[in-house]
Amino acid sequence: MLKKIIISSVFLFFLFSCKTYNVLEEEHPSRDMKDFSYDPKYEYKIRKDDKITLSVWGQDDLSVGSVYGIYNSNEVYGKWLLVDINGNIEIPRLGTTNVIGKTIPELKDEIKTKLKRWLVNPIVDLKVLNKEIAVMGEVKNPAVIQVDKDQNTLLELVSKAGGFEMYANLKSVKILRQEGENVRVTNIDLTEMKDIPNQNIVLHPGDYVIVPSKKSKDFDKRVSTIIPFTTVTSAAAVLINLL
């Protein structure tokens, strides 16, 4: 059931993007790795539909999903501020605040400055609850994985998905990244062990990892279905035709 949900989500992701790719069949949709190169200055920017918790030390009436309170309220209990279609959230006392495209440090500084009208030295903490990376295909546990960091390596995410399955095509691991109305795609060859430091690229929240299967998987499935119902001679003929 989980695999069906994930696959459906990816299909819709591609369907409504301005550019779509047949990423499972194209061997090298993009060789331009510089679009996915490590950027030490990268910071996640708040997006529409993000779920944000706001914590103000000692001020429960100003907090939503506070990590400071005695009774923590978080995503499990439905306590968050949702970024609406206009990029706004409603902050207690401060009212409508535009947050779209801002980093967490930027928004924290803005809120602290505004709260100084009432508080001497406000301590503010913010968290985006739905920072996620999807890992699909030939891994043991395909899933949408929640991440707290902005910088996450490919192999780190694959390990969280349980590692590769036997039929994983490690020569053609695909990484997809939404940038505005476009989707950037790159191909990673993890069989090049000498180049693993470069191939183990850094992923950002919102990225998709697709691990396609080897063509032999379909072959083996067909063989396992056909052979029990054939003679040795006919099985040999079938194998030749399939190969």
From TrEMBL:
Protein known as: Polysaccharide export outer membrane protein
Keyword terms of this UniProt record: Cell outer membrane, Ion transport, Lipoprotein, Membrane, Palmitate, Polysaccharide transport, Porin, Signal, Sugar transport, Transmembrane, Transmembrane beta strand, Transport
Membrane topology annotation: Multi-pass membrane protein
Single GO MF descriptor: polysaccharide transmembrane transporter activity
Top-level taxon of the source organism: Bacteria
Residue ranges of every copy of the SLBB domain listed in the record: 131-211
InterPro entries xrefs: Poly_export, Poly_export_N, SLBB_dom
Pfam families assigned: Poly_export, SLBB_2
Listed GO biological process terms: monoatomic ion transport
GO cellular component: cell outer membrane; pore complex
Principal location listed in the UniProt entry: membrane
Family: Belongs to the BexD/CtrA/VexA family.
Gene3D superfamilies referenced in this protein's UniProt entry, alphabetically: Outer membrane lipoprotein wza domain like (3.10.560.10)
Taxonomic lineage of the native organism: Bacteria, Pseudomonadati, Bacteroidota, Flavobacteriia, Flavobacteriales
Domain Polysaccharide export protein N-terminal: from-to ranges: 40-128
